[in-house]
C-alpha cells in the first residue's frame, strides 16, 4: 500500500496541479506562482507537502531552487490501483445489466 503521505498530497487540487506542471518542466517557486491564483508562500507550502511525500525533487543553483516531479513516487499508488482493477470489468458489466433493465 502506498504511503498515506501520497494520498494526502494528491487530495488537494492545487497540489495535483503543481505536480502536473512540474511533470512537464522543472520550475522555480516564482514560475509556479505565476500559474496559480495563490500566494508564493502557499505554493511553497504545497511544494513542502509534495517533497515530504517524495513526489517532488529540489535542485539548488546558487540562490535559486528548482523543482521537478519525481514520478517514481507514484509506483506504490499504481500497484495499489492495479489490485482493484480486476473488480472493474465485473462491476461495469453488472451496471450495464441494471441500466438495460431500467430501460426496458
Written description of the protein model:
The protein has one domain: Arc Repressor Mutant, subunit A (Orthogonal Bundle). The chain is mainly α and 104 residues long. Strand 1 and strand 2 form a beta hairpin. Helix content is 64%, strand content 12%. The chain is elongated and about 65 Å long. The chain has six helices and two strands; from the N terminus they run H-H-H-H-E-E-H-H. It has a two-stranded antiparallel sheet with strand order 1-2. The model has no long low-confidence stretch (mean pLDDT 89). Helix 1 packs antiparallel against helix 4. The termini are far apart.
What descriptors fit this protein?
6 helices; elongated; mainly alpha; two-stranded antiparallel ribbon; 2 strands; Arc Repressor Mutant, subunit A; 104 residues
Secondary-structure topology with pairs:
Elements (H helix, E strand, L loop, with lengths): L3 H8 L1 H12 L4 H6 L5 H13 L3 E6 L2 E6 L5 H11 L1 H17 L1
Antiparallel strand pairs: 1-2
Helix pairs in contact: 1-4, 2-4
Task: Give the N-terminus to C-terminus distance in angstroms.
Answer: 42 Å
Structural class: mainly alpha
- Major beta sheet, strand line-up: 1-2
Q: What's the tally of helices?
A: 6
Count of distinct strands: 2
Helix proportion range: 55-70%
Radius of gyration from the alpha-carbon trace, in angstroms: 19 Å
Low-confidence stretches: none
Amino acid at each position: 500500500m502506498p504511503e498515506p503521505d501520497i494520498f494526502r498530497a494528491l487530495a488537494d487540487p492545487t497540489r495535483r496541479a503543481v505536480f502536473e506542471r512540474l511533470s512537464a518542466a522543472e520550475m522555480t517557486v516564482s514560475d509556479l506562482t505565476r500559474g496559480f491564483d495563490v500566494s508564493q508562500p502557499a505554493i511553497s507550502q504545497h511544494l513542502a507537502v509534495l517533497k515530504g511525500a517524495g513526489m517532488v525533487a529540489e535542485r539548488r543553483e546558487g540562490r535559486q531552487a528548482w523543482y521537478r516531479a519525481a514520478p517514481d513516487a507514484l509506483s506504490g499508488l499504481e500497484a495499489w490501483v492495479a489490485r482493484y482493477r480486476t473488480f472493474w470489468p465485473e462491476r461495469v458489466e453488472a451496471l450495464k445489466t441494471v441500466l438495460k433493465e431500467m430501460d426496458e
